[in-house]
Specification:
This protein is mainly alpha-helical. It contains seven helices and two strands; from the N terminus they run ααββααααα. Helix content is about 50%, strand content about 10%.
Length: about 180
């Protein structure tokens, strides 16, 4: 007789998939995510340093007293994982425009969170589901904050009659 397994929650499902150790012919694995994170971090750091240097040159030419004033740490969640940045600053200037002032995630991650939420995952399950993709757990509070953007869009009526068609392309085609 064949043994059947009933999976009752998402952690059990993830554990089962991991135990199966599935691979495909077109799967590419390797250290590309570490290299991609390092490259993105280097590009952002170089741009911020250039912006600070440009500001200091501009300030010096105009006789405005300014100097470097250390840096602070900012974490940004991207499609290749979490990037830790050291944001340089001066007494009067910070190049945070390169990394939005209070951004913790790139826009595509927010869209991914909204997609999971609209497909029916609870706020906790969204975090667990994205853990395997991003390598970083998204908190239920973050999912709730991102989902509040839906409330505002619906309230304003920005999406018209079929709101979900704009958020998740082809979902309406699947549903009909």
């Amino acid at each position: 007789m064949e043994r059947q397994i009933v999976i009752k929650n998402l952690p059990e499902a993830l554990k089962m998939v991991k135990e199966m150790n599935l691979t495909s012919d077109d799967e590419w694995s390797g250290e590309f995510q570490d290299a991609a994170r390092a490259s993105i971090g280097k590009v952002l750091k170089d741009r911020m340093e250039d912006k600070v240097a440009g500001h200091l040159t501009w300030a010096y030419q105009r006789g405005i007293p300014d100097r470097r004033n250390g840096s602070y740490i900012r974490r940004v969640l991207t499609g290749v994982g979490d990037i830790i940045l050291s944001i340089p600053r001066t007494r009067r200037f910070s190049p945070r425009g390169i990394v939005a002032a209070y951004a913790r995630r790139v826009k595509e991650i927010d869209h991914l969170i909204l997609t999971c939420f609209l497909l029916g995952l609870s706020t906790r399950k969204v975090g667990i589901a994205l853990l395997s993709i991003l390598g970083e757990k998204v908190s239920p509070q973050t999912v709730s904050r991102v989902a509040k953007t839906l409330d505002e869009a619906v309230r304003v009526g920005r999406w018209g009659r079929c709101f979900i068609c704009y958020v998740i392309p082809r979902l309406c085609d699947i549903m009909t």
